[in-house]
Design goal:
The protein has 246 residues and is of the alpha+beta class. The protein has eight helices and seven strands, in the order ααααβααββαβββαβ. A five-stranded mixed β-sheet has the order 2-3-1-6-7, sandwiched between helices. A two-stranded antiparallel ribbon has the order 4-5.
Length: 246
């Protein structure tokens, strides 16, 4: 049964399990008949019971598995952005409050970055919303790849139209320098190819980043968030495509 599950990982293989159980059950009761000189009627009864029990047990397990799969899908839809598959604002609020509380209570560093795709409205107005969608998905792919290569405890969230947040549990602000610069440079050096009906379009993008660390003056997570937000908008006011620390 473990082998069957490995071959069919994405669903509950009801029929394969049933056939597997019935084959080995038939072998078992055939050997029992020989060893204990059981009558054919007794063996037939046991096989009948086994068939009914197998169908009932596997049917129940299949129902539970399907229900759990549905719950996971619903949770994913509620907590992740449908377009980019990154975590959404709802889960961001929950996890930010949790990480902030943990940072204050345990005196652990916590840093957060916020970035915005520069002139994103111009991309939509010039190339269309499908091109904008491709830009968003590409940016998330780049950032998530860098996260996976560095530290899976770092989390990326899409918190607005073209606005994203990254939470760094256990990181001081200076410890994030390498990561943040890697993100900015990777996005800056990416040219997105968008195929319109008549021709290919090249879209070059940059991002403006604000970053800050929890400090003793932060009374709640909102104060922390606001400071990061102000840092990002400072980057935009200073000419975009830059990093501002506060």
């Amino acid at each position: 049964m473990k082998y069957i599950k490995k071959q069919i990982p994405d669903s509950f293989p009801f029929s394969y399990y049933a056939v597997d159980i019935l084959i080995f059950g038939f072998i078992l009761w055939s050997l029992a008949k020989i060893k204990f000189s059981l009558s054919a009627i007794t063996v037939l009864k046991q096989l009948t019971y086994m068939i009914f029990f197998t169908i009932f047990a596997l049917g129940y397990i299949s129902l539970i598995t399907r229900e759990n799969g549905l719950k996971k899908k619903l949770f994913s839809l509620a907590s992740h952005d449908e377009l980019t598959h990154s975590k959404n604002y709802t889960i961001f609020e929950i996890e930010l409050k949790h990480q902030f509380k943990n940072s204050i209570q345990n005196q652990k560093p916590l840093t957060m970055a916020m970035f915005d795709i520069d002139h994103f409205k111009l991309v939509n107005d010039t190339f269309g919303h499908l091109a904008g969608d491709k830009v968003l998905a590409t940016v998330v792919d780049i950032v998530q790849t860098i996260i996976n290569e560095n530290d899976p405890t770092i989390s990326l969230y899409r918190t607005g139209g073209e606005e994203f947040n990254i939470i760094f549990p256990g990181y001081s602000i200076n410890k994030t320098d390498t990561f943040i610069n890697q993100v900015r440079l990777a996005i800056n050096h990416t040219t997105i190819i968008y195929n319109q009906e008549t021709e290919q379009q090249q879209i070059d993008i940059t991002i403006s980043i604000g970053i800050s660390e929890v400090n003793q003056d932060d009374l709640n997570s909102q104060m922390f968030y606001d400071r990061v937000d102000q840092a990002m908008y400072q980057s935009k006011r200073d000419g975009r495509n830059r990093i501002t620390k506060k």
